[in-house]
Design brief:
heterodimer, A: about 110 residues, mainly beta, 4-stranded antiparallel β-sheet, about 50% strand, B: about 110 residues, 6-stranded mixed β-sheet, globular
């Protein structure tokens, strides 16, 4: 079936540094999402993105977070600067459209902030 | 704010048995309901969706939705060891941009 890829699978970074998480969504999908899962807790919505714009974001999507997809390449989540509480697994997802269509998830990037 | 709760937290069933997973949601404007399955080290994968009240059957899996009771369930018939995984209920609202609110998950173990 359709696959979403995420690079890297693991990232360890010092607090205060910048990190970029990369997502290669399903090729014909138009809507892109990031979710955050802290160990032992439920997955939480961060942001969705369509046509170059953030459509909706949660309160977890702090000012230090940004997303973009320049020229149809990777869909990225950038955190600058990172904080200890940003340690989590970040899942990227994509969907063809809205209206309850399935979101396809990547395998996640485990981010550890020291 | 939407709250999605799942029960039980974990479930052990014998091979060939029936597994029943429950999910309650808080917002009556909820419109789309999904069950996702996640194996260790992988991302969640959609198992099935249900959008209307009643039952929806896909092979060994049956989802049931009762919007008035704010309840959705998943029943797995003839459970197999390969069904062992973490199961998430996910809900999205009418008028939202497909934002999914997830439950904490039910960990299912099917023992041979």
């Amino acid at each position: 079936g359709p696959k979403v890829l995420q690079i890297p699978s693991h990232q360890i970074i010092d607090m205060g540094q910048m990190v970029t998480l990369n997502c290669d969504p399903v090729s014909n999908h138009l809507y892109f999402y990031w979710y955050k899962q802290i160990l032992g807790q439920q997955m939480e919505f961060l942001v969705n993105f369509y046509n170059g714009k953030v459509m909706e974001k949660s309160k977890l999507f702090k000012d230090q977070f940004s997303v973009e997809r320049p020229d149809g390449s990777y869909f990225t989540l950038k955190i600058q600067p990172t904080a200890l509480e940003d340690s989590a697994v970040y899942f990227c997802a994509s969907s063809l459209s809205l209206g309850g269509l399935e979101q396809y998830f990547g395998p996640g990037t485990r981010l550890t902030v020291l | 704010q939407q709250k999605v709760q799942q029960s039980p937290e974990s479930l052990i069933v014998p091979e060939g048995g029936m597994a029943s997973l429950n999910c309650t949601f808080s917002d009556r404007n909820s419109q789309y309901f999904w069950w996702y399955r996640q194996h260790s080290g992988e991302g969640p994968k959609a198992l099935m969706s249900i959008f209307s009240n009643g039952d929806k059957k896909e092979g060994r899996f049956t989802a049931h939705l009762n919007k008035a009771s704010l309840h959705v369930s998943l029943h797995i018939k003839d459970s197999q060891p390969s069904d062992s995984a973490l199961y998430f209920c996910a809900v999205s609202m009418a008028g939202s941009f497909n934002k999914l609110t997830f439950g904490a998950g039910t960990r299912l173990a099917v023992c041979p």
